[in-house]
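ok so i was messing around last nite and threw this chain in just to see what happens. nothing serious, just curious
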Amino acid sequence: MDFMTDVESKRRIAYFTMEIAIDDSIPSYSGGLGVLAGDLMLSFERLAIPCVCITLLYGRGYASHDNNNDVFDPSKTGMSNLQVNANLEIGSDTLSLSAWSYKVGRYVDILFIKADSNDPNFAHLTDFLYDPSEYIRLRQEMMLGIGGVRILKALGYSPAVYHMNESHSAFLVVELLKDMNEKEVLDRCVMTTHTPISAAHERYSIASLKEAFQKYDWMDWNKFSDGKEINMSLFAARHCRAVNAVSMKHKYVSRDLFPGQKLLHITNGINHLRWVHAAWCEVFDSYLSGWRDEPSLLRQAFNIPSEAVIKAHAAAKDQLLNYVMSRTGIQLDKGMITIAIARRMTGYKRNNLILRDVDRLENIASEVGGMQLLFAGKAHANDESGRAVLDDIKAKASGKGNLRIVFLDNYGLDAAKLLTAGSDVWLNTPKAPLEASGTSGMKAALNGVLNLSVWDGWWLEGGIEGVNGWGIGERKDWQDLSSSDDETDYNALIAKLSNAVLPAFYKDEQRWLNMMKSSIATVAPYFNTDRVVKEYVAKMYTNL
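result:
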């Protein structure tokens, strides 16, 4: 057996995720969680660590505010039908599963599991990612967890580690328990938890589980319940030898959600080759030889001549403004400071915090020479708070004057690459301590864009006030879990914008350029998925 066949047959890591952003044409993601999964797969491949990623094949993608009537056809992409089948018992029915493959490279393959569309009981089971129906989500998670393990078996894979990206795939434990005892399962499973919001951790009633798992007679659900329901995150964690939070602060925030569970922290990162703009690629190739293979070399960004920094950023900004013009018909000014706010739309992320008093913002913009705000992001159809934020932004949008507010529809990977490279400032204002990590600001920093963010998530580790960006409000201790206040944060944001950010942009070009270099040098070498994967191997995958 040659090495290639051995790699393909064993796939040491099996990474299960409800969503993944690997290609803009594949509707398999909603936001940062999926983008992170895609970045990780690219780093697994780059580091030559064999991995198979398991997810679902969705017909219409994220259940967002968009009216999407197109059904995704995998045959029109680079995906291939694996001609493999597995059966999944749901209730009294049996569902036939198949799989499509998206090959990242020699070491990494992504398997998209698909339900038999000819079965009338399950015809619409995978129409939407994060379907608002609990009934459908439960069955999707059975497909991902149990169906995923069975597809792997059918393909001859024998993973050493089953990595659950959130607890959406926790039912894989059910399939493993059919053939292993609890200690053996514990030895094989790990999980990453991404959210400190209790409501986001899936719970199912005992009655619902017993109805769906009628044919799984080896499972005693009462053993894992609180009497009425099962918290799937706790169920997953109970069967994992390691559970990691996604930033140092997030580890402390999550302790109450995982009582008795030892939590590690492995702070998220980005794939540096995926998110760097072409103009910056040329600069890095010229002045930081070897950075592609060793992103740690980006710490030498201080050595890049200022003229090269100006040229690279101008190219990225021009491309972004041309994109805005093509999508909205609004001509923005390349001389004005351009601030991007592009996150998934939900209440706690407070994407519209800066718009709390538009008149006040207009006065500030008039005094300095103008301000351009670019918003993007999607809200889940079932998220009323997210829809309210979105509606507020759209209602206040205006493409003229000293304050220009623009919303970009259909936010995806391609738009994200332009926004994170072409804006001048990346604004991040979630309600602390609810930002588990965040990765969009890391992408911006890689391209010399300065962060303006609340002190939470990754920024609490990576931010250096006045050096690579600015913090909003009081910088608190890691273990301080007190909640931030909207009014206080808004006033702190406006003060920092008026007294630090705008004066630096309009009156001190050399300082701004130095901060751009610092942004690259202090963020990119550490906050990348090559480092994340290495930490997974060292801290989580101990039996490789």
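not much to say yet. The first helix runs from residue 3 to 10.
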